[in-house]
Automatic annotation (TrEMBL):
Name of this protein: Uncharacterized protein
Organism: Staphylotrichum tortipilum
Any Pfam family hit: CS
GO MF annotations, alphabetized: protein-folding chaperone binding
Region annotated Disordered, chain positions: 211-245, 354-420, 454-482
Feature: compositional bias, Low complexity: 354-397
Record's compositionally biased regions (Basic and acidic residues): 213-234
InterPro entries, A to Z: CS_dom, HSP20-like_chaperone, SGS_dom, Sgt1-like, TPR-like_helical_dom_sf
Domain SGS: 392-482
Family of the protein in this entry: Belongs to the SGT1 family.
Occurrences of domain CS (ranges): 249-347
Length: 482
C-alpha cells in the first residue's frame, strides 16, 4: 500500500479510538512523509497510550513541518501542535509550560505572526515562578477572533467598560475557544501549587526545538530463556552484564536553555530518587550519582554506569548553582562564572565519575550538594560587569554605543527599569534580552545593514539577504559621502 493509504487508515483508526492499531499504520505513512496531519494523529495516539515523550516528539515535529510547508492548512496544524504540546506538558506535571503553549495556540488562532515576540514565557517572579493567574486567563479575551467592535459581544464589552476589543473572524474561532477553556483547567491547578513546586517553572520555548530524528517503533523483545544455577536461583541467561552496553546508549536525554545569569540543564532520568542523589558541582563539571539507566536496568549504586560526569560548556560558580529533581528529570541551574557570556552548548556527558573535578586553570574547590538548595533571592544575583569585552553594538541613544549583553545598569538598590527610564532604547534592550541567540543575531544584522531603519527577529528571513535601508516617509536616505 502507498503511504497515503497507510496515513488515511491510521487517521481513521485514531477517530475510532483504536490507538494501538493506528500507530503502526501511521509509522508506515510517516516513513516517507512528515505530514503534519499524520504526525498530530500519531501524537494523539501516543498520548492516549501514555507514551508522552513520543507524543511530544510528534507534536514538535508537526509544528516545524507545518511551518516549513507554508500551505493553506499550515496555521491550523501549528495551532493544533501548540495545543497538543500544552496537553502533554499538563500530563507531565509541567503546568506553567502547559499554559504558555495554550496561550501561543490562542495567539496563532487570532492571526498573530508565528515568530512574534510576545514574552508569554517571561511572566515570572524573582524565583522564576510563573505568575499568570486563573483570573488573568479569564479576563484574557480582548482579542477573541470573531468578536469585532460591531458585534454583540463587542458592544457588551464596551458597555461593561471595556474597549470593545476582539478581532475579525480568522476561521480559527473553535481552536481559540478550545485553548481558552483549557487554560482554566491548567491555571486552576497552578493556583494551588506551593511556591517550590517545579510545575511553576517555565522550561518551554514558543518555537519548540526541532526533533532531529523520528521515534522508532518499539518492538517488544522475545522472552529470554531462564536457566537454573546450582543454588536454584533463576537467572536470565541473556541478561546484559555490566559494561556490555556502549556508553552512548547509557547517556541521558538532555535539554537546556540559558539567560545572562545562568544555564538551566534538564536531564531526563526516570525514577531518580531525590533523597539518594549526590550532586557535586565544580567550576567546569557536575557529577551525579546514582542515576537509573533505561538502557541498563542492572545498574546499582556504586557501579560505574550509575554515575555520570557532565563536562560543562563554560565556567560556573559552584557555590551559587543548584539542582532539583522530579520523578522524570533532574534539573541543574548553573550560575555562570561570567554573567552575560553566551554558551555555545551546555556541554557533554561522560559515563562514570572522574577523579578531577576542578579546572586546571582555576583550582576552585568542588562544592558538594547532597540535597536540593532553595532558589537564590534577588539580592544574591550578581550584576554583570560593565567592563566586559563583549562588542558594543550601534545605537541611537544619546549616551553612545552600548553593550547589549550587559543591560543591567541600575545602581545597587535601584530598580533597573527606573535606571533606564527616559532611554529611548529601553524597549529594544528588553526585546534583545529576552530573545534567543538566533533572534539576537537577526536583530543585529537587520539593524546594522538597514542603517537603523529596520529591526527583525526572524533569522530565516534576513539571514540570506541584505536588509535594505527603508527610511520613514518623507525622509530621503543618503550616503555619508554624498
Amino acid at each position: 500500500m502507498s503511504s497515503t493509504t497507510f496515513g488515511h487508515q491510521g487517521m481513521e483508526a485514531v477517530k475510532k479510538k483504536d490507538y494501538a492499531a493506528a500507530i503502526p499504520l501511521l509509522d508506515q505513512a510517516l516513513a516517507s512523509s512528515n505530514s503534519p496531519a499524520w504526525l498530530l494523529a500519531r501524537a494523539q495516539a501516543h498520548q492516549q497510550l501514555k507514551n508522552y515523550d513520543a507524543a511530544l516528539h510528534d507534536a514538535e515535529l508537526a509544528y516545524h513541518s507545518a511551518a516549513e510547508r507554508g500551505s493553506g492548512t499550515s496555521r491550523k496544524h501549528m495551532i493544533d501542535a501548540q495545543h497538543r504540546r500544552s496537553v502533554l506538558y499538563f500530563k507531565l506535571g509541567r503546568y506553567a509550560d502547559a499554559d504558555c503553549c495554550a496561550k501561543w495556540s490562542m495567539l496563532l488562532a487570532e492571526g498573530r505572526p508565528a515568530g512574534e515576540v510576545d514574552d508569554v514565557d517571561k511572566q515570572v517572579d524573582q524565583f522564576d515562578n510563573y505568575t499568570v493567574s486563573y483570573e488573568d486567563a479569564v479576563a484574557d479575551c480582548k482579542s477573541q477572533p470573531g468578536q469585532s467592535a460591531g458585534s454583540k459581544m463587542g458592544v457588551l464589552a464596551g458597555i461593561a467598560g471595556g474597549d470593545g476589543g476582539g478581532t475579525a473572524k480568522t476561521g480559527f474561532e473553535n481552536e481559540w475557544n478550545r485553548a481558552y477553556a483549557w487554560r482554566s483547567q491548567v491555571l486552576g491547578i497552578l493556583d494551588r501549587l506551593g511556591w517550590d513546586n517545579p510545575g511553576l517553572k517555565v522550561n518551554v520555548t514558543k518555537i519548540p526545538p526541532k526533533p532531529q530524528k523520528k521515534v522508532e517503533k518499539k518492538v517488544e523483545p522475545a522472552p529470554k530463556p531462564v536457566v537454573e544455577k546450582t543454588d536454584t536461583k533463576p537467572v536470565d541467561a541473556n541478561a546484559p552484564t555490566p559494561g556490555s552496553i556502549p556508553d552512548e546508549q547509557l547517556k541521558l536525554r538532555v535539554d537546556f536553555y540559558q539567560n545572562n545569569q545562568s544555564v538551566t540543564v534538564s536531564l531526563f532520568a526516570k525514577d531518580a530518587k531525590k533523597d539518594d542523589l549526590s550532586v557535586i558541582f565544580s567550576n567546569n563539571q557536575v557529577q551525579i550519582s546514582p542515576l537509573p539507566r533505561a538502557a541498563a536496568t542492572y545498574v546499582q549504586p556504586g557501579d560505574r554506569e550509575a554515575a555520570s560526569t557532565f563536562v560543562l560548556g563554560g565556567e560556573i560558580d559552584p557555590t551559587k548553582s543548584r539542582w532539583t529533581a522530579t520523578p522524570r528529570k533532574i534539573e541543574l541551574v548553573l550560575h555562570k562564572a561570567s554573567p552575560g557570556q553566551k554558551w555555545g552548548t551546555w556541554g557533554t556527558e561522560q559515563i562514570g565519575a572522574t577523579t578531577t573535578t576542578t579546572s586546571s586553570a582555576d583550582p576552585t574547590p568542588a562544592a558538594t550538594v547532597t540535597a536540593p538548595v532553595p532558589a537564590p533571592t534577588p539580592a544574591a544575583i550578581t550584576t554583570p560587569s560593565t567592563t566586559s569585552s563583549a562588542p558594543a553594538y550601534p545605537t541611537s541613544s544619546r549616551t553612545g554605543p552600548k553593550n547589549w549583553d550587559t543591560f543591567t545598569t541600575a545602581e545597587p538598590g535601584e530598580d533597573e527599569e527606573d535606571a533606564d527610564k527616559g532611554d529611548v532604547n529601553f524597549f529594544f534592550k528588553q526585546l534583545y534580552k529576552g530573545a534567543t541567540p538566533e533572534q539576537q543575531r537577526a536583530m543585529m544584522k537587520s539593524f546594522v545593514e538597514s542603517n537603523g531603519t529596520a529591526l527583525s527577529t526572524d533569522w530565516s528571513d534576513v539571514g540570506n539577504r541584505k536588509v535594505e535601508t527603508v527610511p520613514p516617509e518623507g525622509v530621503e536616505a543618503k550616503k555619508w559621502d554624498s
